[in-house]
Specification:
392 residues, alpha/beta, 7-stranded mixed beta sheet, 6-stranded mixed beta sheet, 14 helices
């Protein structure tokens, strides 16, 4: 049994980093993830951890330093948000292309313009094709638990890819909740010692990183990268089983909430899922077979498993806290692909909500479930994609 404390999400992530005790951390502060590095910097200054903290002039430099440290043979972590992640964009591809198991805490925040410091998923969804494993977290406890599992998964010999653990800015990062911290010795035993592969600092076995690869081998290289991230699904489940042994908490590729017989289903990420569960319960009390699917692993996306979980749904509402201008929301496109590729054809609609941190209230989930219920009754769809919670 660990220690129960009331903390913010950012504090939980900083404490997790302290327990992991990475070799190197390079970061540049940006709201709302600043507190993670602020707290972790105090651990470094007080000698609580052995980490080499590299203070840099930008987030691009932060990821560059992380790449160098990881290639040298260290366990490396960082944290960022929004424009900070966007400034790293070039280096995100290099980190994944070089197969470096860097782990990042991403506190989700809207991308500018206009400037907005509050939480939506435009930053992480924008980076979904950068080759990073992506985990999403409903609350501080899940974010804390995910970061340890992300370390194991990223560093697995069959994977060796970077990973980001996402949680909603301010809604989770700055809100206080009660959660359990696991004992240091349990975490140390779970993550184990870092095992570098082909490190640059092994001067007896010199290697080259970042070579030029042209038409002769580039596509083969990318196929190998694809195969590696695809294996992360299986490894995620294996690591989750091991984590359950030390924590008592069970994780999968997603959470299926009252889906066994659900006819109308909402799909939603992160903190909004907690709000939605209460509304699903209320609809169940009214005799309506409602359910929720909350994705946890978004990259690689578990298409077959998601389709099986949603196979009984007749009407699905996918809620995206990010826009894909000129198309459906990013989550909708993944769910639609999962259903169509397996021959399932439920009626599906897409709702864009909560951009720039606009509150997602129970009434919003209720309105969407009412609409799904009406579609189930009549078979008529008013709009395939629309915004909710917008002032008229």
């Amino acid at each position: 049994m660990g220690k129960l404390l009331a903390v913010t999400g950012n504090q939980a992530m900083a404490e997790a980093m302290k327990q992991i005790n990475p070799d190197v951390c390079a970061a540049y502060p940006i709201t709302p993830s600043t507190e993670i590095m602020q707290r972790f910097a105090s651990f470094v200054a007080d000698g609580v951890v052995d980490t080499e903290l590299v203070t840099v002039e930008s987030e691009h430099s932060a990821m560059s330093a992380c790449i160098g440290a990881s290639a040298a043979g260290g366990r490396v972590m960082t944290a960022t948000s929004s424009q900070g992640l966007a400034l790293m964009w070039e280096m995100l591809h290099i980190a994944s292309g070089l197969r470096l198991p860097i782990v990042m805490s991403l506190v989700n925040r809207a991308l500018s313009a206009p400037i907005n410091i509050h939480g939506d998923h435009s930053d992480s969804m924008g980076s979904r094709d950068c080759g990073w494993i992506q985990f999403y977290s409903e609350n501080a406890q899940e974010a804390y638990d995910n970061i340890f599992q992300a370390i194991r998964i990223a560093e697995h010999d069959d994977i060796r890819l970077p990973a980001m653990v996402c949680m909603d800015g301010f809604i989770i990062s700055h809100s206080i909740e009660s959660m359990e911290f696991l004992p240091d010795e349990a975490i140390k035993g779970f993550i184990g010692e870092f095992k570098p592969i082909h490190p640059l600092l092994d001067v007896d076995n010199p290697v080259t990183y970042g070579p030029l690869v042209l038409t002769d081998f580039f596509i083969e290289f990318k196929r190998a990268q694809h195969e590696a991230i695809s294996r992360a699904k299986e490894v995620t489940l294996e690591v989750a089983k091991e984590f359950e042994k030390i924590s008592g908490r069970s994780y999968g590729l997603f959470e299926a909430y009252k889906l066994d017989d659900a006819e109308v289903v909402l799909v939603v990420l992160n903190s909004a899922a907690g709000t939605t569960k209460d509304v699903v319960d209320a609809f169940r009390d009214r005799g309506i077979k409602a359910g929720l699917l909350k994705p946890r692993l978004f990259r690689p996306f578990p298409y077959e498993e998601v389709a099986e979980a949603l196979s009984g749904a007749k009407v699905i509402g996918v809620l995206d806290r990010a826009e894909s201008f000129g198309g459906f929301g990013p989550m909708y496109m993944e769910i639609a692909s999962a259903m169509m590729s397996t021959g399932l054809k439920p009626i599906m609609i897409n709702k864009i909500y909560g951009l720039g941190g606009r509150d997602f209230m129970p009434a919003h989930a209720e309105t969407v479930l009412d609409e799904l219920t009406e579609i189930l009754r009549t078979g008529k769809v008013r709009a395939l994609k629309e915004y909710i919670g917008v002032r008229q």
